[in-house]
Amino acid sequence: MRRGFDGDGVIRTWESWTRDRVESLTQRHVLRSLRPVDAGGRGWSPSGVPRGASSAEVWVSGPTMRAWETGAHDLGDSADVVPANGVTLDAFAATTAATTRTSFPDGTTSRVTGTTDDDANDVHHRRLRLFSSNDYLGLGTHPRVRAAAARAAAAHGSGPRSSPLVCGYTVAHRELEKGLALLKNTEECLLFPAGFAANLGVLPSLADSADCEIFSDRLNHASIVDGCRLASLKGTKVTVYEHNDVRHLEALLTKSTKRRKLVVTDALFSVDGDFAPLRDIASLKRRLGNDSFFFVIDEAHATLVCGKTGGGAAEMLLKDLKTENDSEDLSYLVDVHVGTLSKAFGSHGGFACCSRSLKSLLLSSSRTQIFSTALPAPCVAAATEALRVAGGYHTGVTDAESEENVDEGVSLRARLWRHVERLRDGLQLKPLLHGGRVLNDEISSPIACVAYGSEAHALKASAVLLNRGLHAPAIRPPTVPLGTSRVRLALSAAHSDTDIDALVEALTTIAEPRL
């Protein structure tokens, strides 16, 4: 009899069903864990030495690191044996088993959990270089961005805690929306509580009836997939076209009899690292007719990263990219730019840049915006300052400030793209750890993937990198299709050349350390 079921195949209890599901996830190597890290910062640290926060590194406790390296399941409780800033030593000691005595920064000692001599170092954290964060420009820890968030928190706390339609929308929210609209060269912008919520709100608001058909790339992000599912509940037909296959898309569009057609795609695919053929899709829209063809792109991983001014993949591929036979600016053919503030902006939230009339529609029909509390004041302030740093003239600052800020944004993007070239050159034509291969045989963006196929092989490769002090996660189903597991590498301007070289060395050194 299958565990958790009675003789008639009926689930006996919710508890037994839960145990059965967890066991199944474990056997398939897709059970997820929470690995608590210390992001650092001024003041207390596990070693007692003050340090500043970095977008490219974190610190991990001994118990958490051991659980991580061995693949042990962790719900975050591996951090419970480590004293946090402000926790008294007596309170800490009272919550742990007394087996090993450890010295603390102030010279006192306490007993902590452990069974070996190595466990005496449990409270001493280990540095881990991140190749997993989406903080592509390092703005999450930029001094000006941090200061802006701190000032907003001191002045306003979280700000009015209400929906934007009630009393949660402030002049600070408006300033950020205007800056984002200028960045994307659109009439307006609408903020959302997260990038996921933006897609979940935009798509069913636009595709709201049976006279509409959505055409979605097969590898689109889960937020787009779920947005399409919500639209289908309203009678909209959802059709999937093969990844980046414009010919297939054209055939499906030509076959469709629906009055309204909406094409949606990621601009830069988050777990593949390749760009959508935006120029080909825009040209297709113009050829088939602009009236019935609506074009939505998700610029989550491309905004501030791509384009001369950080406008995203649309700016880079539709405006900046010019060839002898094709030099026209096609960026106007994009109807909605969906994005997030939680990646290159180093903050939190989502947005949709669009026309003024479309904002009016979304404001009155997008449930994820209507029924969500407005973004907290520190997040808004951080995102606005990040926009000033990475593309200053988009936020209405003075000319002198603007020139200085534009230079910094250009410099950060140039540094990031030099890292992309350095990694590409370092891995080119070389055998990789555990027989991995560079996905799509090239690295064309700050997202690079080493393909392994099986979940177990990807997890093992990730563990080897972790042992060498590099965090690059194994991406497994359901995030990616079965048999396509990989190790995902995310580069940042916060990385040094030495960081990139260490990653290359770890991936190209076939001899493995003993785990």
Describe the protein's topology:
Elements: H1 14-27, E1 57-60, H2 62-70, H3 89-94, E2 100-103, E3 109-112, E4 126-130, H4 143-156, H5 164-168, H6 171-184, E5 188-192, H7 195-206, E6 212-217, H8 222-232, E7 237-241, H9 246-255, E8 260-266, H10 278-288, E9 293-298, H11 313-320, E10 336-340, E11 350-354, H12 356-365, H13 367-370, H14 377-391, H15 399-427, E12 437-438, E13 447-453, H16 455-467, E14 470-471, E15 474-475, E16 485-490, H17 497-508
Parallel strand pairs: 4-14, 6-7, 6-8, 8-9, 9-10
Antiparallel strand pairs: 1-4, 2-3, 5-11, 10-11, 12-13, 13-16, 15-16
Describe the fold and architecture.
The protein has 515 residues and is of the alpha/beta class. It folds into three domains: 96 residues, no CATH class; 192 residues, Aspartate Aminotransferase, domain 2 (3-Layer(aba) Sandwich); 97 residues, Aspartate Aminotransferase, domain 1, CATH 3.90.1150.10. It is 38% helix and 15% strand. It is built from 17 helices and 16 strands. It has a seven-stranded mixed β-sheet, sandwiched between helices. Strand 6, helix 8 and strand 7 form a beta-alpha-beta unit. Helix 4 runs antiparallel to helix 14 and helix 7 packs parallel to helix 8. The longest helix has 29 residues.
